[in-house]
Amino acid sequence: MRLAFALAPCIACAAPSAGTASIAAPAAEPTFAAGTTKSGERTATATSTREPPAQPTQMIVQFERVIEQPIHDVALGDGSRWAALGDTPYVGDARGAHALPLPDALKPKPGEIDDARIFFGRDEEPRIMGARRASSAERSIYWRHAAGVWRDGREEIGALAASTQGALWGVLGSTDPELVCRVNAQCIIKRTSGWTTAPAGSSVLHVELCDGVLWGLDARGLSNMVTRGWVVALPAPAWSEPRGFWAASGEAWVATAHGLFRFHDRTWDEVAAPVAEPESIWASAANSVWVAGKSGAAHFDGRNWQSVALDGSFSKVLGRSAQELWFAGETGLFRVLP
User: Fold this and answer.
1) Helices in 106-262 by DSSP H: which ranges?
2) Between 20 and 30 A from 58 (CA), which of 22, 183, 219, 260?
3) What's the alpha-carbon Rg for the chain, to the nearest Å?
């Protein structure tokens, strides 16, 4: 189904998918011109300047609705391959899409809620990682799709497989490194050259792999994975409920429950969000940033925001390139048409 939507800009203001000795340094260290603490950790100046919205203009963007069921996460694999997670997982490519139902043994029981993400593994088959929560317990999820069925895949997570207590979080994919962590235990950093470990810390981070660097987001700010574990690289300004982010050398965006924050020119700026309750951010470059939230989606070209009149609430935006973009939300899974 092809849909055309209007876009409206307002002034304000990578890529997809995501082991045991001491951890190797990140493949590429981010470089931020900022101060340092006595321990050598980077700091950043925080401000709370809210930029006002401008009057909208109009342009047209075409979308294809790929799945018409609610979808809360999407992963992109090699070539045209993609996977999506709703009540039922899906997988697809340029030839089409099909459901990958969970077997009864892996489905949640009454009173249980899954909080999980979908990824591709090294074999280009999907994985689901996260937690299953009930009133009295939280159990880890690590499922692997192989030979046409979903099954427990804990053989892929080393020492973390010894327990099912507590959420698993991190990032998986065909690009080094993969990361799997459990709070108050360890992170396994999986490279094709071998596995290493580091302390996981005491909080769950939202993790993305940006330009070969592992970034983690929580209330403290944006952190990098180094030998001794997570180290805050960009301390948080006065934000609450951080939900999604994009980061690169010298530039970062964070979506929170109440707005956006941009790190630029050594400083955090609070930005008037072009959508209500932004949830997810993805960028192909500093001058091409997309955000998705409760009232739709929008694009930033380095100067202006353009609000996309895409109906519904969206929890994820992800791209393979500037020409291929995906949105996951309550009204389904959408792909931007070139």
Assistant:
1) none
2) 260
3) 19
pLDDT digits (tens, 9 = 90+) for 91-138: 999 999 999 999 999 999 999 999 999 999 999 999 999 999 998 889
What CA–CA distance (Å, rounded) separates 82 from 283?
18
Beta carbons within 8 Å of 47's beta carbon, 6+ residues apart: 237, 267, 268, 269, 270
| Token reading at 258 | 């109440």
E-strand stretches of 205-250: 206-210, 213-218, 221-226, 229-235, 242-248
Angle (CA) 312-318-322 rounded to 5° is 115
Amino acid at 32: F
**What sign has the CA pseudo-torsion 256, 28, 37, 225?**
positive
Between the CA of residue 248 and those of 6, 13, 216, 286, 303, what are the distances in Å? 30, 17, 13, 8, 18
